[in-house]
Amino acid sequence: MASSSWPENVGIRAIEVIFPSQYVDQTELEQFDGASTGKYTIGLGQAKMGFCSDREDVNSLCLTVVSRLLERHQIKHTEIGRLEVGTETIVDKSKSVKSVLMQLFAESGNTDIEGLDTTNACYGGTAALFNAANWIESSSWDGRYALAVCADIAVYAKGAARPTGGAGAIAMLVGPHAPLVLERGLRATHMEHAYDFYKPDLGSEYPVVDGKLSIQCYLSALDICYRLYRKKFEKQHPEQSGAGLDNFDAILFHTPFCKLVQKSVGRLSFNDFLLSSEDKRVEKFAGLERFSTATLEGSYFDRDVEKAFLTQSAEVFEAKTKKSLLLANQVGNMYTPSVYSGLVSLLIGVPAAQLVDKRIGVFSYGSGLAASMYSIKVTKDAAAFEQFVDKLAYVQPMLNSREKVVPEQFSSLMEVREKNNHAAPYTPTGSISALFPGTYYLKDVDALHRRTYERTPTISNGVH
């Protein structure tokens, strides 16, 4: 099966997303928490937050998303040669989520599947995607597909951070001749040691967060990755030197909350301003000359710089990024799947014809910290791309069919999760009937902490 020539156009051949069937309304949560009106909705840019009861864990999310991708795209289990899970939701300190997923492949007899779990906050999914592409472009490739799976349940203790939670999973089928191609040689990475967000208490689902440092780390990593990406891009495309943001037709970001993404577009515009010639500044950044002595390091919390470049980049945000925030706004922060939920949102929010042969910039960030900026080139084959996008027609109906839960009930369900986080033996009490058709759920945990899962019935029409 393996080809001796370098595989062409390696990238994403199929993508599947799932999110919780229940959500809490952020306006109602503001009132329940006694927060000022608009703090979560306007301040953070969040409308609804999806959450999981004790019936779902990271294993069940991954079982659901992988099953659905294989079923929807009619991929045989024997066609998968690598499967890697990016997650920071740890159920077991030794046993990988990937090993749990091998149950799906048992009947086919395919146990020859490389890959394990990859962990570093919200970056693990990107690492899994890169590793999948690297495998296909390596001498290890045997001609089969790879699967990169991202899944997390983001929950916070009661307080200011709780409305930035969320949950979800995304699976990406990676192979050659893809509708979404990872552009070769256009990857920029920045990694360093920081305690901006971390989970040192293995008995709790809750992280330790230094909010201000976390935003600084995110923006700093964005600056570094963007400048490095620009250098690599200009080396590949000298004729487009200095174009900066103009080189992207769409730009996606890891989204802890939507407002940070809007600020990030402004941040990239500020970088373009600092890197541009005086002539270009006069032409493109008229009225912003007063910031020519500003520095990246000194401007992370500079309100004047932030406001000026938010305004300057408003049209870019509207045209290239806003439509990618649908799932982030409606579900919340999914952690590892977050930036890829942005990709799904873009694909269902923009007519396919407008994206053919276009370049999509992607910034992925995980606290602690690991970050990359890379780009995806949409195929020139309009028919193939339209077929690819058509497979995502289920996303909006699924969003619309979710069940709204009042904040009081949401809060009590969170208490149940918190109290029984590592309980054994344990039988979950969350509603099974509330789950979407075809959802795997936790049936029980025995005295030895062994988890068993069952699946709600699938239906051929409607939400699936």
From TrEMBL:
InterPro entries: HMG_CoA_synt_C_dom, HMG_CoA_synth_N, HMG_CoA_synthase_euk, Thiolase-like. Its EC number is 2.3.3.10. Keywords: Lipid biosynthesis, Lipid metabolism, Steroid biosynthesis, Steroid metabolism, Sterol biosynthesis, Sterol metabolism, Transferase. It is an enzyme of class 2 (transferase). Residues 6-179 form the Hydroxymethylglutaryl-coenzyme A synthase N-terminal domain. This enzyme condenses acetyl-CoA with acetoacetyl-CoA to form HMG-CoA, which is the substrate for HMG-CoA reductase. Catalyzes the condensation of acetyl-CoA with acetoacetyl-CoA to form HMG-CoA. Belongs to the thiolase-like superfamily. HMG-CoA synthase family. This is Hydroxymethylglutaryl-CoA synthase.
